[in-house]
């Protein structure tokens, strides 16, 4: 459970919270120097902030220093985390649906099984983050940095990934259903231990503009790739061909939609 003192400080406002974090860090630094002679090695971002299972729905935490915080199971629905420092934060099974995470620093954070549906992660930094089994259903990840992140069975169905960077990320059955991947940077540099899961709608949205090496990793036979690319390049932008309404380009064009994603047909 969350530490009551930490919750009280956080509810006093981000300025008060960040000042306390700064003072605490200075005190810890002095204690670490004193203990250095005994061979004590301090963890870079210890979980000295306990906000586990806290209800922080609708809270304004923009620019808050939450680095290394224990946020396991925390409810952060519609929270404002614009520019927040969440480096190495533990967000296991946290609920971040519809959260504002633009410019948030989530490097090396632990988002395993987290729900980040409909969240806005424009230009968020997720390098080296563990996103295994997390749901980014219909999340806005334009220009997000996912380099070297763990994407094991991460669900990006209906996500918006324009300009996102994925170089060196680890894909293990990453779910990419109904997603336009045409402007994602680094698809050919994914480390795929198991094929990413894509469907016909992903191929259509991407209009055939996908690296052949990525399609091979997705399990598509080399012999048919040229024909597929030509087909979807010709018809990918014609919605009537697929007889389906395409999802909005941004989660902020819809009301709070938190339902589970549909089952995708994968290769």
TrEMBL record:
Pfam families: Pentapeptide (PF00805). InterPro entries: 5peptide_repeat, Pentapeptide-BTB/POZ_domain. Residues 248-267 are annotated as: Disordered. SUPFAM superfamilies: Pentapeptide repeat-like (SSF141571). This is Pentapeptide repeat protein.
